[in-house]
């Protein structure tokens, strides 16, 4: 078995979505402090974190898109363990819209079929090109509404992308989020290392969210598994 990690590293002040709270990771108690205070012979260290539920590599719960959407604690775990393929879209320019015909062509080139009730990961090369520069937060290409509708028609449960948002920044991205609610699909943002999946065919995608009551999304440890 081979496991490919598709998750961004989390660390203090790693880039978050513009306007959302920062990611904070600090030491609550050092090894030395716990020795002194409790006589704990192990001297256990404890750290803490604070982050938006859309921080790092994460899945959007449908609740993010509207009040009627499913919150993250009720999102079906069956959708977090699905077959997937990855599409090579690295030729798409920064900030450009990815169209249905470009997706169709990328599927053809991949030589794989889109798995029913599965996922499609879109490798735009954006993470590799820009992370962690300011352009990471602004310059990504992404699907337009027609491409989102096309993806939903293939019978997927979600799609994923190697940028902070599924559409190019601005109104298109907002409309893509709204379309996801209407089409009953969702998406995974801030994936990385998708290049490792290109030309590899079908894999098992795993990305389990945390069980935040009423949450609008959750960080996930996203991986692709190849059984061999
Ligand atoms: Zn989103």
Low-pLDDT ranges: none
CATH structural class of the largest domain:
Alpha Beta
CATH architecture level-2 label of the largest domain: 3-Layer(bba) Sandwich
The fourth-level CATH homologous superfamily of the largest domain is Putative cyclase
Present as ligands are: zinc ion
> What share of the residues lie within helices?
10-25%
H-E order: EEHEEEEHEHEHEHEEEE
Q: If helices are DSSP runs of H or I spanning 4 or more residues, what is the number of helices?
A: 5
What spatial form do the alpha-carbon principal axes imply?
globular
Main beta sheet, described? 9 strands, mixed
The whole-number mean of residue pLDDT values reads 96
Q: Structural class, from secondary structure content?
A: alpha/beta
Strands of the biggest beta sheet: in what spatial order?
1-13-11-5-7-9-10-4-12
Radius of gyration, CA atoms, in whole angstroms: 19 Å
Number of structurally distinct domains: 2
Instruction: Give me the count of strands.
Output: 13
CATH topology of the largest domain: Glucose Oxidase, domain 1
Distance between the termini: 5 Å
Strand content: 15-25%
